[in-house]
User: What shape does this take?
Amino acid sequence: MDRFRLRCTCCNKAIAFELKGRCTCGGSLLVEYDLEQVAAKLSPNTLLGRTASMWRYKELLPVLHEQSIVSLGEGGTPLIRMPRLERELEVRQLFVKREEQNPTGSFKARGFSSTISLLHEYGVTKVAVPSNGNAASAMAAYAARAGMQAVVLVPRDCPGIIIEECMRFGAFTFQVRGLIHDAGAIIEAGKAEQGWFNAGTLREPGRVEGKKTMGLELAEQLGWRLPDVIVYPTGGGSGIVGLWKAFRELHELGWLQSELPRLVSVQERGCTPIVDALRNGDTQVQPAPEPVSSSPTGLRVPNPPDGSLIASILRRTGGTAVSVTAEQIAEAQRRLGLEGLSSSPEAAATLAGAIQLRAQGWIRPKESVVLFHTAHADKYLPWKPSPEPPTVENYEQLKLWLPS
Ligand SMILES: Cc1ncc(COP(=O)(O)O)c(C=O)c1O
Assistant: This one.
C-alpha cells in the first residue's frame, strides 16, 4: 500500500488517494494510512522535538511534499483547566481546548491549512466554499497565502466581521438569500464553467484530516490519556469525524493509555438534525424541519452532508447529542467571560451542553470533560462590512460579478 489511500465509511471499499470526498455508493471517503509506515517514522518521543504546529503530525496528514504545506501557524492551541467550573459542575476535571487561538480565530484554520495544502499539491488554482462564516474566512486566508483564487458564499445574516475578513483576504465574497446548502447549490451550478474546486464539508479528504489534529494534540497534551467525555459544537460534522478518526488512529498505533471518550454533539434549538436522529433512534439523519430558527452560527446546518456518519460515530463511542437554547448559550458566554474567555456562541454552547448533561446525570461526578472552544467572540460583534458584498440568488447572478 502507498503511504495512504481512501476508504469508504459506507461500503468499505478502498481506492487510491484522490481529491474526492464521496464514494460511488454515496458514502464518505476518509484517508486510511499505512500505520506500520507511520510507526516507523513517528512515535510519542519523536514528537517531543517538533514545533507546536498541527504539522508536527505530518506523517498522519495526506500531504506528500513539505513544500506543498500552506501554513499560517495553526495548531498548538492551549488546553486549560477550569477549577471553578469543575467545582460548580461537580466533575473531577474540566478542560477547555482553546481553538479560538488559531489563525482567523477559529478551529477552521486547521481544516483549511490541510485542504489548501492538498489542493496546492494537486495544482488547483481556484477554490470555492459554501459556509456559515468561519470556514469562509479560514479558506479565504489560506487561499490568499497559497496565491489561489477564492470564492466564498455565506448567508445574508453571516456576521459582518467575518464577511469583512473574507474581503480583506481577497476572496470574491457573496451573500446568499437562504442557508448554507443554498450557497452550496450555487457553487455546484458554477463549478464546471468557472473551474472551481468545491471545498465544502466532506467534499475532499483534507478538511477532516486537518480537524483530526485537534484530537491528536489533545491526546498528546494529556499524556496520551483521553478524557471520559468530549463536548463538541456540531454543524456540518467534520469536527466530530476528525476527532473520532484521531482517536482510532492513535488506538491502532497503540499510543493511547486510556479508553476512547464518549463524544457529544451540541446543537442549538431550532436546527438540531443530529440531536433528533439520536433521540428517535434513526440511522439516517432527516433534514431539520422548516423553518430553521436557530441563530446564524456555524451550528446552523439543517442537512449535514453525512449526518448518518456523525450519528453512528456518536453512538459507537457511547456518546450523545444535546440541544441548547440561545439563552443557555448566552448565559454560558457570560460564565466563560468570568473565566477570562471570550467565546463565540458555538464555543459557549459546549459549556451549556455540559451543564445540561451533568444536571441529567449523564456526565458523572468522577468524570473528566473537555470542551472544544471553537471560535472567538470578536467574530460575532456587530459590524457593517464595507463595501457591502453583492447578494445573489443563483449562479447566473453571481457570474456577473466575476472578472471575465
Ligand atoms: C465556531 C464553530 N464551531 C463549530 C462549528 C461546527 O463545526 P463542524 O462543521 O465541524 O460540525 C462551526 C462551523 O461552522 C464553527 O464555525
